[in-house]
Structure formats: C-alpha cells, structure tokens
Amino acid sequence: MLALISKAINRLTWLAELLAEIGLVGLLLIVIHEVIVRYVFDSPTLFSVELSEYLLVLVVFMSIGWVLKEDRHVAVSFVVDMLPKKVRLVLNVLTSLLTMAFLGILVWKGGKTAVTAYTGDYHSSSLLNFPMWIPYVLIPLGALVLSLQYLVKIGQLIRSIGSQQTGPQKPAR
Fold first, then answer.
1. Which residues constitute the domain of residue 19?
2. How confident is the model at residue 173 (pLDDT cuts 50, 70, 90)?
3. pLDDT in tens, 106-157
4. Is residue 16 within 8 Å of residue 62, measured between CB atoms?
5. SS3 (DSSP) at 86
6. Residue 29 half-sphere exposure toward CB, CA atoms < 13 A
7. Comparing C-alpha atoms, which of 55, 86, 48 is closest to residue 167?
8. pLDDT, tens digit, for every residue of 15-65?
9. What is the pTM (predicted TM-score) of this model?
10. Which residues are registered as beta bridge partners of 131?
11. What pLDDT score was predicted for residue 165?
12. Three-state DSSP class for 131?
C-alpha cells in the first residue's frame, strides 16, 4: 500500500516537473522573442516581462518536488557528514518534518491568498490585466507537491533507520 502511495506521489511530482519544463520552454521563447523585437525591430512588447515573471514562478514552484526526489537541493553538510549514519538519518527525518510544517503553512496561507484573488477577481495592474489567482495558486501547489515528496523521503529514511537497527538481512528465497 505504501509503495502504491509513493508511486502516485512520484507520478504527481513528475507531472509537476513536466509542467515546469514546458514553462521553461515558454520562458525561453518569450525572452528570445522579446530580444528580437526589441533590438532588431525596435518594437518592445508589453507582455514579455510580466509573463516571464509568472513563468519563472511556475518553473520554480513546480520543479521543487522533483529536485527533492532527485536529491539535488543545495546542502552544506560538512558538519553533519561527521556524525554517525544513524544520527544523520534521524536529523534528516527531523528536518524533513520541520520543513513539512513550514510547507503546510505555505499551502494553507498561499491557498487562502489564491482563493481570495480568484473570488475577488484580482488582476495585475498592467495593461496585460492578467488574473492574479493563476500565479498565486502555483505557490501552494508547488509546496503541496514538495510536502508530499517529503512524505516519501521520510518513509525512506525511517526504513533506513530500521535497517540500521536490525543489521543486514539475508535475502528471501
């Protein structure tokens, strides 16, 4: 059952990463377009900076779960690396739980902000008049994906701690 849940969370993380990659391609195309029309045709667009900002939010928050899954977050661990392996695993579980608490608050407050922006029909003050609930909802969604990925990580860490206590296991026949 836990393997099925873990697989579903990993699939959701993959979908969020795919969305981030599509957003990154969109960002690339908008920037290339803006450079060409601004410097070649001397006719800058009104939308490129604002859309680039929203796409950057999409890329960052939709990819953070995948970054955790692949263990690619930046970490300064020279002190922690000197500790025994079991202590490192326990500390990793504790810091993961603390991070999940923060992410829970981010999902809750960010979700409230996105709902307020949607129900209040908030739009950007630019000529683009972009609905603000769209970039606002990306933050709690990304935090939710990251917190779910932390659940998978915590499960893996707890299994590692358990295997440290029981010692090496003989393979089943």
1. 2-164
2. very low
3. 999 999 999 999 999 999 998 889 999 999 999 999 999 999 999 999 999 9
4. yes
5. helix
6. 7
7. 86
8. 999 999 999 999 999 999 999 999 999 888 888 999 999 999 999 999 999
9. 0.87
10. 123
11. 64
12. strand
Cα–Cα distance measured from residue 103 to residue 98, given in angstroms and rounded to the nearest whole number: 9
- Asked if 133 contacts 122 with a C-beta cutoff of 8 angstroms, the reply is yes
Residue 173 lies in a domain: no
Do the Cβ atoms of 52 and 27 come closer than 8 Å? yes
Q: What angle do CA 41, 43, 48 make, to 5 degrees?
A: 115
Considering its fold, how many domains does the chain have in total? 1
CA angle, 61 then 105 then 11, to 5°: 45
Residue 158: CB atoms within 10 A of its CB come to 13
Report yes or no on 169 lying in a domain. no
Q: Are 102 and 139 in contact (CB under 8 A)?
A: no
Contacts of 125 (CB under 8 A, 6+ apart): none
Does 171 fall in a domain?
no
Beta bridge partners of residue 123, listed in sequence order: 131
Which tokens belong to 22?
A: 């599509």
pLDDT score of 41: 92
